[in-house]
């Protein structure tokens, strides 16, 4: 079976898992303090000083601010209301990869809509980029999530006598043999990398959805922030970061990253 034939046979399974996602369209320069943006001047809580790193004490850099009330209409109320913000230490502090890191080297939060005041000045150094639109794309789940979703690859590593790698999807009565086919399926049923809103996470080392501290539920992708995309920063060795949110407690957001 060729890769194209395999993909065609799996089409009904793929169609059920596809999710809409959006790439940000940006323009150089800062906008209003409430605009969606990378870097630039954000809104802060009333009377709040610019957030500092809990590790080194230096000001955190604003990486992302998203106005949840100005996202594509198709998302409806999925992510709630207010401003999602990610501040991050660009110094030598460790621990920023970890959601809810206790060192305070990142700050990921939701400012309620209609509250707060513009920051007086931005101590950051990144060039601001305003998000002026959203380009839709169709996203597919990462290979590391296929098994959980019913598309199983069995390598038969320890089989004696030797057995070829098999890919099985009972939901659509699919079965194929061979490492090349398995590899092609994993490569072609995959999420977009780069910066994007919603969709499926492009995982670095494995699915890492933080558990909501309020209810224990797995948190869902809100925004994928890649190394050196719209923010001129490298997470570890070309890592990819994810802002996640509890589907029930929409004020609970977190940021973590992993190397690819
Ligand atoms: Zn720091
Ligand atoms: Zn929750």
UniProtKB/TrEMBL annotation:
Q: What InterPro entries is this protein classified in?
A: DUF1963, YwqG-like_sf
Which Pfam families would you find in this protein's record? DUF1963 (PF09234)
What is the name of this protein?
DUF1963 domain-containing protein
């Amino acid at each position: 079976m060729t890769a194209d034939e395999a993909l065609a046979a799996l089409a009904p399974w793929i169609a059920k898992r596809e999710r809409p996602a959006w790439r940000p369209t940006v323009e150089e320069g800062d906008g209003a303090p409430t605009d969606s943006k990378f870097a630039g001047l954000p809104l802060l809580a009333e009377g709040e000083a610019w957030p500092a790193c809990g590790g080194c004490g230096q000001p955190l850099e604003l990486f992302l601010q998203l106005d949840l009330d100005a996202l594509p209409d198709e998302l409806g109320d999925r992510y709630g209301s207010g401003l999602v913000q990610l501040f991050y230490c660009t110094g030598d502090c460790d621990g920023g990869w970890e959601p809810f890191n206790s060192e305070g080297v990142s700050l990921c939060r939701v400012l309620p809509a209609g509250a707060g005041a513009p920051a007086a000045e931005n101590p950051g150094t990144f060039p601001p980029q305003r998000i002026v639109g959203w380009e839709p794309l169709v996203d597919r789940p990462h290979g590391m999530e296929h098994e959980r979703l019913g598309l199983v690859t069995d390598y038969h590593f320890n089989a004696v006598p030797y057995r070829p790698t098999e890919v099985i999807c009972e939901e659509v009565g699919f079965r194929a043999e061979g490492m090349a086919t398995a590899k092609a399926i994993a490569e072609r049923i995959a999420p977009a990398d780069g910066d994007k809103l919603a969709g499926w996470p492009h995982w670095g080392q494995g699915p890492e959805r933080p558990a909501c501290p309020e209810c224990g539920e797995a948190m869902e992708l809100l925004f994928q922030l890649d190394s050196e995309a719209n923010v001129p920063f490298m997470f570890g060795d070309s890592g990819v970061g994810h802002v996640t949110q509890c589907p029930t407690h929409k004020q609970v957001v977190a940021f973590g990253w992993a190397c690819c």
